[in-house]
Amino acid sequence: GDGTATDEAAIDAAIDDVTDDATVDPAASVPLDPDAEARHTEALARFDDAAALFERGDVEGALAEMALVYRLLEGRPDQYVVFYNLGRIYEELHRYDRAIDLYERYLRESPPDGEDRGDVEASLRALERLLGTLVIDVDVPAEVWVGEALVGDAPGEIRIPAGAHTIELRAAGYETHRQEIEIAARTRLEIRATLARLSDVHGISPGFFIASTATALIALGVGIGLGMHAGSLH
What we know:
Layout: H1 8-19, H2 36-56, H3 59-72, H4 81-92, H5 96-109, H6 117-128, E1 131-138, E2 142-146, E3 149-154, E4 156-161, E5 163-170, E6 177-183, E7 188-193, H7 206-233
Parallel strand pairs: 1-7
Antiparallel strand pairs: 1-4, 2-3, 2-5, 5-6
Helix pairs in contact: 1-3, 2-3, 3-4, 4-5, 5-6
């Protein structure tokens, strides 16, 4: 972020768990009061903090607080409200793909007469028009990064915001494939990549060391000879 202490990558991974129907713990080191009422009280306070941060433009700070609100509301029937707010935060971060995931989760879990359903459905329709589909064909399973954000896995299809992006394909044991792309909204762009395997050599080979040493000794001998000759001339 812009000078914030928020680890966006860690929080992003936590929200991945939210959208994957898993238990989220974006702040595992924060001890939670075992009393449900105390947790609810803290969740309300942190919700207000997140709203204040969002209004001040500290979107990443709001993201950190709202992710913890989700954890504090665990097991409560109103936990789904966090998805709507997380969706708004990701929309502000221009992570439209993630916002769509969270809005869809909100619609699945909120009651049919939820007061925000109309707004969420309208937001979904608008955001769908801002995304393009990236179709990635790669020879080994790899993570797909757009800028500093992990957005999915390849091979496969990934929705990303329209515009110019730096795409990275990362896989353990392989060199990172980096590619500049430009994608328009509501279009499909196919890219193919072959990742180069990293060298298995861990250090300088003995043969190289011996050859380098011999070269150095020869150079040293020439230097000594020149030095002696120069000395005699002097």
